[in-house]
Design brief:
Number of strands: 6
Largest sheet: 3 strands, antiparallel
Strand order of the largest sheet: 1-3-6
Number of helices: 8
Strand content: 15-25%
Radius of gyration: 18 Å
CATH class of one domain: Alpha Beta
Oligomer: single chain
Distance between the termini: 36 Å
Helix content: 25-40%
Order of helices and strands: EHHHEEEHHHHHEE
Amino acid sequence: MNPQNPLSKNGKAILWTRQHEHSLNDLKTEGVFRIKYNYLYENYHDITTYYTKLYKWFVAEASSMVPKPEKVEYPIWCSVSPENTLPAIEGTVVYELEIDESEVIYFDGSKWDYVLNHHYVAKNPDDLRKYQEEMYIKGFKGLDLFSLVDGPKGKLYPDERDKVIKSWIRVFDIDSWDVFKVQGNIWEFNENHIKKIIYP
């Protein structure tokens, strides 16, 4: 269940997202903006596949919370406050959006960093300590933990690998409403959602 955004009013959430200026053309020609693979490639280049594998996991989990429209492939990352929004720079624009609260999936961006690094997402500090002790006893140290998910060790230790991946669901657990940690995911937006467009 999504947490309540304290900044929401009348069932509407205000979100901000920085996108490439080609998004303006998408809105004009298609009537909607969605993230496409080539947009991700423009950002991540040679490591795009690394990110899209993790996005695939995120999409599968997020879709069970807010159904994904058929034509959507990837999520749109949004900030929940203007203070934590990437500024508009050359070649980009920032959209201020008003979205139905029921269409927003909130998650903890600091926990997402653990997912990006293929680490275990702990319930709390005590759980993390117990996990690290357990793995140390099993002979895992340092970078060994990273290789569990996408390296050869994962095939040798499937239970440990699954434990890490299953822990990732905790990115959707919001422990406190910190605008510098909490982020919002939406699947798409159109011109009716736009309150303001901020140019460089």
